[in-house]
Amino acid sequence: MAEIRLEGVAHSYDGGKTYALNPISMTWEDGKAYALLGPSGCGKTTLLNIISGLLKPSEGKVFIDGKDVTDVITDDRNIAQVFQFPVLYDTMSVRKNLEFPLKNRKVPREKIAERVKEIAELLGIEDDLDSKPSKLRSDLQQIVSLGRGLVREDVSAILFDEPLTVIDQNFKWTLRNRLKRLHLATGVTVVYVTHDQTEALTFADEVLVMDKGSLVQAGTSESLFLEPQHEFVGYFIGSPGMNFLDVEASASELTHNGKPIGKAAKAGLNGRHRFGVRPEFLIPSSEAGMEFNVDRIEDRGVFKLIHLSKDDFKFIAKTEESYEAKVGGKATFSFDPKRAFVYDLNQKFVSTVSPSSQGGN
Predict the structure, then answer these.
(1) Burial class of 117 by CB neighbour count within 10 A (0 to 12, 13 to 18, 19+)
(2) In terms of C-beta density within 10 A (0-12 exposed, 13-18 middle, 19 or more buried), how is residue 105 classed?
(3) How far is residue 98's CA from residue 114's CA, in Å, rounded to a whole number?
(4) What does the pLDDT average to over 152-167?
(5) Which pLDDT score, from 0 to 100, does residue 179 have?
(6) Residue 227: how many CA atoms within 13 Å on its side-chain side?
(7) What phi and psi values does residue 102 have, to the nearest 5 degrees?
(8) pTM of full prediction above 0.85
(9) Are both 221 and 74 inside the same structural domain?
(10) DSSP symbols for 92-132
(11) If exposure means fewest CB atoms within 10 Å of the residue's CB, which of 111, 289, 322, 353 is most exposed?
């Protein structure tokens, strides 16, 4: 098992003109499961390849269990990596593909057979062991590739680079649960790259949200949802994401186009800011709150998404299934002040909103 520590790790592909990965310093604890979550091009795969040794960082150092491995080749880092698309030997059967990493390390024949059987059962490919990879569907090929990454028991860490991209949507749930069970049983350190928030939030002990080459927030699923410290986290985590509104702060009083929105809990706040509240924390109200036009209603069976507009802005509220409203009508909503946030123009959190300070109609 491994503790992975990064000190000022950054990377540029063009000699320092631009950076695909901005400086990151952090420690990933031995035995935990981490997810790197973000959109395509945010730097998460670059970071993963630096950890594995496929890429040497332009700046900074990588430590595994306290040892500086920045200049150590991939083979000597004792790390397994599973890529987004299948990496298999088509001249070999599925069985031999799974055996290959173990034979390379001179694992006893009986142990190899036992381990291959165990991994095949875990992944549900027992009936495909004697087939050639080219004869399998693309999602099964990726499952076999996943098996190659899991088959070694002596690795310090396993790195997954969007491993479930080509897997059937229904089977993803099953496979993700099996991977989580394997992690809990082995205690191996896992780093999992994905752009899918469901994969990240359900698999990892801690999720690291990345955007434009930077780590913007790290935390548990709960903390990222309830306490987004960056606008991007509010937008990217959640379905739908956070509602945002441009506001002007004057002595912490928040207004939009001169109309009161609320008061920031932080004293002395002035200037342009952004107000944010998740759809889940817009609360139907018969009294205090803001009156909106109801533009559209999405009935999702167990909840409703109410599309609202007021003056020049739009919000979405997530309500219980029993909530009743009419398209073209009016609806009044307040917000949970503990879950309403103020961000600066750098998209960073600066304040919550004071209770009982909400603007009216």
Answers:
(1) middle
(2) exposed
(3) 11
(4) 87
(5) 84
(6) 8
(7) -80, -40
(8) yes
(9) yes
(10) S-HHHHHHHHHHHTT--HHHHHHHHHHHHHHHT-GGGTTS-
(11) 322
* Range scoring the smallest mean pLDDT among 52-66, 159-173, 209-223, 309-323: 159-173
C-alpha–C-alpha distance, residues 342 and 269, integer Å: 10
Last residue of a domain, one of 231, 255, 281: 231
How many whole angstroms separate alpha carbon 207 and alpha carbon 151? 25
| 184 φ/ψ angles, rounded to the nearest 5 degrees | -65, -35
- Tell whether 164 and 286 lie within a shared domain: no
Q: Cα–Cα distance between 10 and 56 in angstroms, integer? A: 10
81 domain residue, yes or no: yes
Q: Find the CATH number of the domain harbouring 273.
A: 2.40.50.140
The candidate with the shortest Cα–Cα distance to 308, out of 347, 354, 277, is 277
Quick one: 194 and 52 in the same domain?
yes
Predicted local distance difference test score (pLDDT) of residue 360 = 59
> For residue 166, what is the domain's CATH number?
3.40.50.300
Residues 6+ apart with CB under 8 A from 293: 308, 309, 310, 328, 329, 330
Domain, as residue range, for 341: 239-352
How many domains does the chain divide into?
A: 2
Claim to verify: residue 121 and residue 258 sit in the same structural domain: no
Mean pLDDT throughout 180-189? Answer: 86
One domain for residues 330 and 348: yes
**How many residues are recorded in the chain?**
361
Query: Would residue 345 count as lying in a domain?
Result: yes
Distance CA 200, CA 221 (A): 8
In a domain? residue 359: no
The answer on 209 and 70 residing in a single domain is yes
361 occurs within a structural domain: no
Q: How far is CA 94 from CA 125, 144, 179, 283, in A?
A: 9, 7, 19, 54
- CA–CA gap between residue 231 and residue 344 (Å, rounded): 9
285 shares its domain with 332:
yes
Residues 250-279 have pLDDT tens digits of 999 999 999 999 999 999 999 999 999 999
Which whole number is the average pLDDT over 115-128? 92
Is residue 153 helix, strand or coil? coil
Contact 22, 16 (CB under 8 A): no
